[in-house]
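[09:14] KT: can someone run the structure on this one? pasting the chain below
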Amino acid sequence: MTALPRIAWTERPDAGDRLLLVVDLRPLAGVAVGAILIVAPFLAAPLGRLSAPFALLVTLPPLALALEAFGWRDRLAVRLASIRRPLVRLLTTYATWLLTSALLTLDVAAVAAASVGIAVGGDHDEERRWQLGGAILGANVGSLLLPFSNLTNLVLVSATGLGLAAYVGLAVWPQLAAALAVGLLFAVRARRRIAGRPADDAHGEDGTSAQPSGTSDAAAGVAGGVAVVGALAAVAVGLTGGDMAVPFAMSAGLLAGVAVAIARLDVRAVVKSVPLAGLAIIGIAVAASGPIDMAAGLLPRPDASTGGLLLALALGSVLAAVANNLPAAAFGVAWLARAHPASIIAYLIGTNVAALATPHGSVATILARAVGGRHGVGTPARAYLGSAWRYASAGAIAAFLALALAAR
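[09:31] RB: done, structure tokens below
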């Protein structure tokens, strides 16, 4: 591929058969898109500790679109859709998103899971909605296990100096408890809605077979490889204290830029994919950083007692559900600077799991719902609020009980 614009001669009938020179600007647009995405983390640097979340909100949605354009979504969806029993298929995708969130960060899981899950649902509107719900649940609930599984984890672990072994030793049991509790509730509620539908053949979005279309296996494989390498590099960078957004931005810039340049992806779709609401939340959190730090200094720091853990859980839950988990993380940095490690995990249970209660409580939820909206699977805020509190409560209570036992 060359970055130079392609030139084509075309005939316009209403111009008296005159030949006009038409310049194809798609390669230049691809270069511009790629360059903007790559430099996004550096442009966001003045935002301080919230610069990485801001950059990820800008770069991850175009990365997901590029992977779709190269057929990656369809390659994964066709394998998951081949599971014939609807309930087993739904729980399998939920477990897949749990693992993806734990190992490759919840934001990656959110944008990928929502898109793939909707494709797995095929032309069955009810299953498409449940698959989107499973993507939101899996991405958020699976984000507690490791320091890099969620940016809130990474922000607090980096600020408090909590070691990897100490973190995992306390987080693993709440993680398992939350995943099982939410998964069980999800299975019970879904069984009444989709399990009664007869087992069907593998299917894809819009009622078509979920087979890769318009792209080669080689192109999809290369695109997927670039994305995986970027995610693994982000994990490594995050563990060494670097900016996780940089490797994601590199892979997003490369894939989205190429996809736009070769006309697999429209530049307008890239622009529309960026969730403005999420960016606004981060901007508000940055503007309110002074009052946030001041408020944190007025509260007593929690200890490892049951009361202390409950205080940390309650405050993390309320801040995330009312505002968002990123402002909650910013508050936690100031409040938990010298707190007991168990209280930090309790706080993260609130920001990662209880944040599910509201549609704006987690950046991953915002990303996943935006993907759903692009694919015609809307989740009205009222309907979301009427259902999500069950999963947020079940997951947070189970995780807290597991943490209280582990911290004794």
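[09:33] KT: thanks! Residues 6-197+216-406 form one domain.
[09:34] RB: yep, looked fine to me
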